[in-house]
Specification:
Strand order of the largest sheet: 5-3-2-6-9-10-1-11
Structural class: alpha/beta
Distance between the termini: 15 Å
Oligomer: single chain
Bound molecules: 2-phosphoglycolic acid
Helix content: 25-40%
Order of helices and strands: EHEHEEHEHEEHEHEHEE
Length: about 250
């Protein structure tokens, strides 16, 4: 695991964009799984600027959705798919046929999850998993406890996640209690994983992710055992005692 500590959020976003742009250059048909949430927004803006300047080609990428609330249609303004479309897919000119989504309104959810896992497998797995870190250690919506083998599935959100996401919904009572999440197994098997962590709110859980016991109670702790993981954080999120390589 490589740990990169940046001075602030804008720098973190630029360095993350360098890593992602390198992947696009090396493999123009890379398979990516990308997160929603606030942390990756700077990265996405940075990539969109590079796209506008003609520095990256996104026409052959394949994108997989990381998570979705249950019961919302794809075009529902509150769906994570809509969020992803607004902040990532459209600014990067990624078209619908390049995207495999998690249908939160599927009639048969377990079949939809299996179909998603099959699609990832048939694509040869993820080349790059870009992930954020939940305040409870979740990756996507792999809530604690989630084991390293967990497949794509329906999950009940923990009270901590419901309360953390209430800001997007105008109150806790409006947040859906269930979601679909890409599974731990395929995320951990990604050829490259980029974990983005920003702000003091993540300090404690980042320490447990990097140094704590590897446990389903902190799903992100399984990253300690994954093949090629780069954690990019800003100083605000940095737990003091960790030895680090500053760039
Ligand atoms: P955030 O969300 O980027 O909005 O902090 C991360 C997460 O909950 O996975």
């Amino acid at each position: 695991m490589e740990l990169v500590v940046e001075r602030d959020y804008p720098t973190l976003s630029g360095v993350a964009a360098d890593v992602v742009a390198d992947v696009f250059r090396e493999k123009s048909d890379a398979r990516l799984v990308v997160p929603t949430g606030e942390t990756p927004l700077g990265l996405y803006r940075n990539l969109a600027d590079r796209k506008d300047r003609g520095e990256i080609d996104t026409s052959r990428l394949r994108v997989f959705q990381l998570d979705e609330y249950l019961g919302l249609a794809l075009d529902d303004a509150r769906s994570l798919y809509r969020w992803m479309r607004e902040v990532f897919l459209e600014p990067l000119a990624i078209r619908d046929h390049q995207v495999t989504w998690l249908p939160g309104d599927a009639a048969n959810l377990s079949e939809a999850c299996q179909a998603y896992d099959r699609a990832v497998e048939q694509a040869g797995g993820y080349d790059l998993a870009i992930l954020g870190l939940g305040p409870n250690g979740h990756l996507g919506f792999n809530e604690p406890p989630s084991g390293a083998d967990a497949p794509t599935r329906v999950i009940t959100l923990t009270p901590e996640t419901v309360s953390s996401n209430a800001r997007y919904w105008g109150g806790e009572d409006r947040v859906p209690r269930q979601a679909l999440t890409a599974g731990m197994k395929q995320l951990l098997a990604a050829r490259q994983i980029l974990l983005l962590v920003s702000g003091p709110r993540k300090r404690e859980i980042l320490a447990r992710t990097l140094q704590g016991p590897v446990t389903p109670e902190v799903p992100a702790s399984f990253l300690q055992r994954a093949a090629r993981v780069t954690v990019i954080t800003d100083r605000d999120a940095m737990p003091a005692p960790v030895s680090l390589r500053e760039v």
